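Here's what a typical entry looks like (DUF1751-domain-containing protein):
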Amino acid sequence: MDVPDLGSGGDDNIRGTSLGHTRILHLRHCQQLLATLIFVPASLKYLERVWGSVELLKFIVVTVAVSNIIAFGLNWIEYFVIGKPELFLYGMRYHGQMALQIGLLVAFTQLIPEHNVQLFGVIKVKVKTMPMAYLTLSTILCIVGFQNPWILIQFGWFVSWVYLRFYKKTTVDSINGVTYGDRSDTFSLVSWFPPFMHGPLTILGNTVHSLANRFHLIPTSSSDIEGGAYAQVPGGARAEAERRR
């Protein structure tokens, strides 16, 4: 009985599958590059005028570097728990573009939250709704299996918020002349989420904030970060946002 030769057909199928994956990868990278070229330069130019070159550079380095370090650490944890080094150690290549994109949206939410943006010449959305829309898309894609590179949006959002909330140095019209972060209620962690999540997140946020203060991980402040006690600082980031409203 003649046995059909399946070797060449199998090789063709493997090559075809590999070629398809390569094309999808190139298309995805082209989409990321296009979004970066359209959105990022204009955004950086605006933030440079508001913050200055040094503070903008710090924000970029922190958002991109820390997000990628967290993603790298997550891959190692997944490898130790699940195995599959070909997937978690060698199969995921992250790029900083998505972390930077969501970080810029977070910065705009801090500065001009009520500003309307027109998308595709048709849809009008407020700036403050855009980060969570991007984050929701990332969450859905990660759940269905596209961790690479969409998980970077999760980390970029959180890292950029933490930096702007606690660490970014701001020159203000006050006795000390310098303050750190944006401690306003409208930029708190719970403000990003629906009301039914505010209770548990407030408890968690206050607990983590107390521990961070105890171990001097964040600059000290006389106001409660997540609880709502906040005195407006003239000239600060939130004052700038209020003026722009």
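The chain has eight helices and four strands.

More examples are in the samples folder.
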